[in-house]
Design goal:
This protein has a single domain, classed as Cyclic phosphodiesterase (Cyclic Phosphodiesterase, Chain: A, Alpha-Beta Complex), CATH 3.90.1140.10. The chain is an alpha+beta fold and about 190 residues long. The relative contact order is 0.25. A hairpin with a 1-residue loop joins strand 7 and strand 8. The protein has five helices and eight strands. The C terminus is likely disordered. The chain is about 30% helix and about 35% strand.
Length: about 190
């Protein structure tokens, strides 16, 4: 059976609560409730449909992709926007997220049953959404004129990625700890037939 999944970094409860306060403010003042529905998280693979009977293969691929990642500091700094529809808490240190995205892009590209079209680009703009899609243009402009001047700062250590499944709300169905494992050098394999 096909289910909807994504891959994300979860926020600590204290920071998720801060983000929820921003989402509530946007909902109340600018009539945008779409961002209240999903959890506050940092997506590293956009939603995709996948057959749950192949989930163990996907988990193996993701475990391998994330095994070499080490825990890292996430720095949320102020706000950003995708013009006309999304306002988010910006992430100032995007390089660790790009490395994660590159690792899963390489792994999922060759994963049997993974929909190639769902991979999208290997580029990523890590962020935490506070308003999205249901903002009217006028309300977006008004909200963004305020949030682009606001200061916000929070930090936490990302120690794992999560395979998320949509069950009414996004729920973590598998955690992939960042273990910082070193890969053996397989350069000699290039010369073996």
């Amino acid at each position: 059976m096909q289910k909807l999944y994504s891959i994300a970094i979860l926020l600590p409860d204290s920071i998720e609560e801060l983000i929820l306060q921003f989402k509530r403010e946007i909902a109340q003042r600018f009539h945008s409730v779409a961002a209240l529905k999903p959890n506050a998280l940092i997506t590293i693979q956009s939603p995709f449909f996948y057959d749950e009977k192949n989930l163990s293969e996907l988990n193996d691929q993701l475990s391998s992709a994330f095994a070499t990642a080490s825990p890292f500091q996430v720095e949320l700094q102020d706000f950003g926007a995708f013009p006309a529809h999304t306002i988010f808490a910006a992430i100032s240190n995007f390089l660790p997220f790009q490395r994660l995205r590159d690792a899963i892009f390489r792994r999922l590209k060759g994963c049997p049953g993974f929909p190639a079209a769902a991979l999208g680009s290997n580029r990523i703009t890590p962020h935490v959404t506070i308003a999205q899609h249901d903002l009217e243009r006028r309300e977006f402009d008004e909200a963004w004129s305020e949030f682009c001047q606001r200061e916000f700062s929070a930090q936490f250590t990302a120690a794992a990625a999560h395979l998320m499944e949509l069950r009414g709300k996004w729920r973590s169905v598998h955690e992939f700890p960042f273990r910082g494992e070193r890969r053996e050098n397989h350069s000699l394999e290039l010369f073996c037939a």
